[in-house]
Amino acid sequence: MSGDAPIIVVGGGIAGLSAALAAAPAPVLLLTRRPGAAGAASTLAQGGIAAALGAGDTPAAHARDTCVAGSHHNDVAMVELLTASAPAAIAWLQAIGVDFDRDADGRLQLGREGGHDRARIAHAGGDGTGAAVMRALVAAARAQPRIRRIAGCDVDALAVRDGQVVGVSATLDDGSRQRFDGRAVVLATGGIGGLFAATSNPADADGGGLALALAAGAAARDLEFVQFHPTALAVPGLHSLPLVTEALRGAGARLLDRDGQPLMAGVHPLGDLAPRDIVARRVAAAVHAGGAWLDARHIGVAWPTAFPTVLAACLAHAIDPRLQPIPVTPAAHFHMGGLATDADGRTSLPGLFAAGEVACNGVHGANRLASNSLLEGVVFGRRLGQWLAAVSGAENRGGEAAWVGLGPALPPPALQRLRALMGAAMGPVRNHAGLQAALDECEGLAAEGWQAGLARALLAAALQRRRSLGAHYRDDDASMAGPVAAA
């Protein structure tokens, strides 16, 4: 492709928009499923953005908490890059219009969440950080003349010539297909939560970008590590569950069992603010035994301003958190694994790059630290965009490209069955028998749709890791001391 060909960015969440804006000195083509911020998992993020901004805090302390939460499976160089870049990421977001919450003295109001040893989470609009950040990013992208955005595109094929990715093909909302040529393709397509029975993600966060890259031969990393958020709103029969932000526990809310007893007492030194893998296992066990609740009644009159998103979601389901504890359950939330990338977002396939949740450079290890996800999207998305803007595109060598596609999707009944399988076998607690049975069933389902093929890869990775580590907890690992032991 010539240097005049655009950089194609697939995905309009925080990572895709950050990459597009940073690359915009070059021509950028941004392909999204929906207009604006609609449909992006980033918009739903209630937690804030972690950064060492408070008195006495340092990037090294932030890095330490990140590695502890990740069970030291993290790539230390990536962690240091992330945490050192965090204050500048906050400053950049402020420069493009994100109005972070401030205290009475005008200082950034920093909250505390699970796994952090201090308050270092910047929020915007209380529990509406994701929506606030996305509004600013979308506005900045619309104002950038070098970014051409096409919404209503479902990218489902990659063009590969002589081992290099040179474009994509998409199905448009009207059912037509269109090919887009580019000098680089950036996948910023999000995670895999939609493959599980209960998720905090949009239903179409189904790993399509990951599956497409794997089909083209890109290398993967850490596919077995799936984080479950401990506190999604427990709404029977609902697939995409509203999130009940961890910041509530940072503000003093307590998890309770069916008898009203503190759920995390004696489980971990950080109690309700223990790393998410530990809390999720404990909540899952409580749900199985009769239920789990989050008591945040003490928030009182501050509910509408401090946690308006959670309050609205609860009231929509006839729950008033000002008067009663909130029923909660774990839900598939974040994929620590994904396409293997370096610090600049390069995958193993020339011409193909990745940023955000679909990528894995090892920064999160075996379990992501709270409020590092939006940060990752900004830091590594911008870094990737800057790198692409600085390098010239490969020359067009001519010749026909081979197309690698996803193939058919699972019909709705089969997809529902797959989600149930993944929720049971790849949940907060796993074992060989459950993983193997799910893998065997996926072998048959894979002939019906690509989602089962992706699930098969996740299950195979989980089977291969026989010892518990972080979010990958196996109750048949004899070295572990119980269902809520720290990994």
Write the layout of secondary structure elements.
Blueprint: E1 7-10, H1 14-23, E2 28-31, H2 41-44, E3 49-50, H3 59-69, H4 76-95, E4 110-111, E5 121-122, H5 129-143, E6 147-150, E7 153-161, E8 164-172, E9 177-181, E10 184-187, H6 208-215, E11 220-221, E12 226-233, H7 247-250, E13 254-256, H8 276-288, E14 292-295, H9 303-306, H10 308-316, E15 326-335, E16 338-340, E17 352-354, E18 359-360, H11 373-390, E19 402-405, H12 412-425, H13 432-445, H14 450-464
Parallel strand pairs: 1-2, 1-10, 2-6, 10-17, 16-18
Antiparallel strand pairs: 3-5, 4-5, 7-8, 7-19, 8-9, 11-16, 12-15, 13-14, 14-15
Helix pairs in contact: 1-5, 1-11, 3-4, 4-11, 12-13, 12-14, 13-14
Oligomer description: single chain
Q: What integer is the average pLDDT?
A: 93
Radius of gyration: 21 Å
For the largest beta-sheet, the strand count, sense and barrel status come to: 5 strands, parallel
The total beta strand count reads: 19
Q: In terms of per-residue confidence, which ranges show pLDDT below 50 for 5 or more consecutive residues?
A: 482-487
Proportion of helical residues = 25-40%
Which word captures the global form? globular
- Please indicate the percent range of residues in DSSP E strands (runs of 2 or more): 15-25%
Number of helices: 14
The order of strands across the largest sheet is 6-2-1-10-17
- What structural category characterises the helix and strand content? alpha/beta
Distance between the termini: 47 Å
